[in-house]
Structures are given as C-alpha cells and as structure tokens.
Amino acid sequence: MYRCPVCGYDRLRKPAKEFAICPSCGTEFGYSDSGPDPISEIHEHLRANWIKNGAKWQSSVVSSPPYWNPWEQMLKAHLALSLPDIERAKMTEILNIVNSDFGFREPNKSFVFRAPNGNFVGELTIA
Ligand SMILES: [Zn+2]
After folding, report:
1. How many Å apart are CA 93 and CA 52, to the nearest integer?
2. How far apart are CA 16 and CA 102, in angstroms?
3. Angle, helices 88-97/39-52, rounded to nearest 10 degrees
4. Cα–ligand 1 centroid distance for 63 (angstroms)
C-alpha cells in the first residue's frame, strides 16, 4: 500500500505516479500534478483545493474506509501540521470547515477532532 502525498490516504494500490488515481482526493498522478512548479507545491495546491471543496471522498468506484474522516487522515499523514504554510485566506476556510463539521475550538487555538461517534481522533495546534 502507498500513501497519497496530496491528502494522506494510505491505501493506494499503486505508487503515486503513472496515472494512478487517489480515490480519496481524486488526484491523477502524472496528470493532475504535472506542471512547471515543484511537485511539492503542486501537491499543496491540490490539497488546498480539495479541502476548499469540502475534503470529500472522490471515488464512486472505490468505497471510503468505514468511519473515514479526511481530517483524521491528514493528521495521521502529518499533513494537517503543514496547514499554517498555506495562505491565510485558505487557512481561514479550512478552520471554518474544521470548526463547523469536525471539531470545536479551544481557547489556546488547538483543535480537537472527533469521529461522528464522539471518539477522540486527534488534536491539531495552530502556532
Ligand atoms: Zn489523495
């Protein structure tokens, strides 16, 4: 199994290249992420767009894992911690999504993530 560098999904059947498609974020590697910019920047933009559109499961062919949660997936892949590197406007949108759907805001600007059943998933502190 391989991990998607865009969304952190860790059950890719093929490496993230040569037109493999991530069922979680929909990135088609070698196509969606081609361009003149450094690959890490392209992936960051794809991630930001995916989040901006609600971080929804993209594949209609491959089902999402049980209790799938995009924020948990990003936390596990250490991608959520790179969120402060994204521009402020995108950051605000991300935090709005996090606040409204998946967590609650603590006074010290850390976010607690809970699964739909209430179980603790993880915590993200914004510096
Ligand atoms: Zn992905």
Report:
1. 7
2. 28
3. 40
4. 14
